[in-house]
Amino acid sequence: MSGGEGGRPATWLAQALGWVEPRFGEVVPPVHLSTTYERAEDLSYPKGRVYGRDQNPTYDQAEALLTRLEGGQAALLFASGMAAATACFLALRPGDHVVAPKVMYWALRNWLEQEARAWGLRVDFFRNDSIEDLARLVRPGETRLVWIETPANPTWLVTDIARAAEIAHAAGARLAVDSTVATPILTRPIEHGADLVMHAATKYLNGHSDVLAGALVTARMDEYWQRVRAVRASLGGVLGPFEAWLLLRGMRTLHLRVHAACRNAERIALALQDHPKVVAVHYPGLGNDPGHAVAARQMQGGFGGMLSVRVAGGQDGAVRFAAALRLFKRATSLGGVESLVEHRASVEGTGSPAPPDMLRLSVGAEDADDLIEDLIQALGRI
After folding, report:
1. Best CA proximity match to 347, nearest among 328, 335, 336, 334
2. Within this chain, do residues 237 and 273 fall inside the same structural domain, yes or no?
3. Based on the domain organization, do 87 and 155 belong to the same domain?
4. In 3D, which of 213, 215, 210, 205 has the Cα closest to residue 250?
5. Which of 219, 251, 283 is the last residue of a domain?
6. Tell me, what's the pLDDT at 3?
7. Cis geometry, peptide bond prior to residue 284 (ω within 30 degrees of 0)
8. What is the side-by-side order of every strand in the sheet holding 278-282?
9. Is 96 a catalytic residue?
10. Structural domain span for residue 81
11. Phi, psi (degrees; rounded to nearest 5) at 71
12. Does residue 174 carry a catalytic annotation?
């Protein structure tokens, strides 16, 4: 295999680090399907593989590429974003204290409130818009993990990664960042002091809405990281080889897709912010957004492809607006090349941070003028 340490992210991605399979010279990596590996006569494993559950060679290139992109020391692929995220908490000990944001991926928040507490973890939630609230809840000597998500789904509140890292480290805790929306194209949390980076790789990393996957990248390969590896192996939350191959294929255009989504999302935000039937636009790229200044410091090259819009008429107006859209598909998820719209309050149910008049937009790679025209005509139906 080849591929040096030089170059820039776009080159690493397009060439998938430049790896070439040594036996046949394949530029496109193969899929390794074997679940078991032959021992030598002395019963050793001279090629370093024992069993396919957590040692499949198809993982290697994607994990190496993620490690390079995030500036970490190692990466692990998982069967889903939830499998990756929960591994960070399951690698802790019963009785440990963790802090997480009030606005975050809804399924993970529910897991923290229910399963993590049943596991024995003590959990507190801080206000995303208040770094002081985070500092107040962290307990020196007791807090072991601080989890942040920035920008935070679905209101796109921004958390200062560097300040969160200072607070966590001063208390003897690690900082983990869900950077799914920012991607390593826009933000590299380890450079700002984070210890772990999580991606729901189903979203932007894959980018084609056809793979469930998750990933973790670590700033250092310490004892805690070994426990995370053990959680993946023992609980079996591993990615299949074909899914790993599809993920790597999707990642090779990550830079192109993310920049296209950023451009489209910014144009949409600007086009909608003064519309008479729009109550508010939540997008960190807008100058009047409360998180804009922090986002401008820690997001390079764009502010992401996600925004949320609050419309006139309350929930009824939001539902009618979504129903009138022609290009935006009414569907869950984000980060694909196709644009999606979702009414998060009805999906998340009681306790959702999404107001009933809010719609979440995942902006894809279509023509921006077509998307804007679709949104404007739908607003006219309210």
Report:
1. 334
2. no
3. yes
4. 205
5. 251
6. 52
7. no
8. 278-282, 306-311, 358-362, 340-342, 329-330
9. no
10. 9-251
11. 70, 35
12. no
Q: Which residues sit opposite 282 in a β-bridge?
A: 308
Does 2 map to a domain? no
Residue 182 buriedness (CB in 10 A; 0-12 / 13-18 / 19+): buried
pLDDT for 144: 98
Is 274 annotated in the active site? no
* Together in a domain, 24 and 60: yes
Cα 232 to Cα 238: distance, rounded to the nearest angstrom = 7
Residue at 1 is within a domain = no
- Identified catalytic residue from 105, 204, 224, 283: 105
From 109, 144, 174, 203, active-site residue: 203
**Residue from 178, 195, 289, 357 carrying the catalytic annotation:** 178
Residue 41: predicted pLDDT:
82
63 is a domain residue? yes
Q: Distance between CA atoms of 280 and 272, rounded to whole angstroms? A: 9
Catalytic option among 39, 45, 51, 53: 53
- 203 part of the active site: yes
Q: How many CB atoms lie within 10 A of CB 43?
A: 6
Instruction: State the CATH number of the domain containing residue 327.
Output: 3.90.1150.10
> Which pTM does this prediction carry?
0.95
96: its two tokens: 């440990």
Positions in the chain short of pLDDT 50: none
Axis-axis angle for helices 254-272, 368-379 (nearest 10): 40
> What whole-number distance in Å separates Cα of residue 18 and Cα of residue 137?
45
DSSP 52: H
CA dihedral 17, 21, 27, 28 (to 10 degrees): -90
CA distance 272 to 135: 35
Asked whether residue 63 falls in the same domain as residue 198, the answer is yes
Whether residues 226 and 260 share a domain: the answer is: no
pLDDT at 40: 82
Domain co-membership, 222 together with 177: yes
Task: Please give the tally of structural domains in the chain.
Answer: 2
The SS3 assignment for 346 reads: helix
Structural element, H or E, at residue 149: strand 143-149
Tell me how long the chain is.
Answer: 382
Angle, helices 368-379 vs 314-324, to 10°: value is: 130
H or E segment at 263?
Answer: helix 254-272
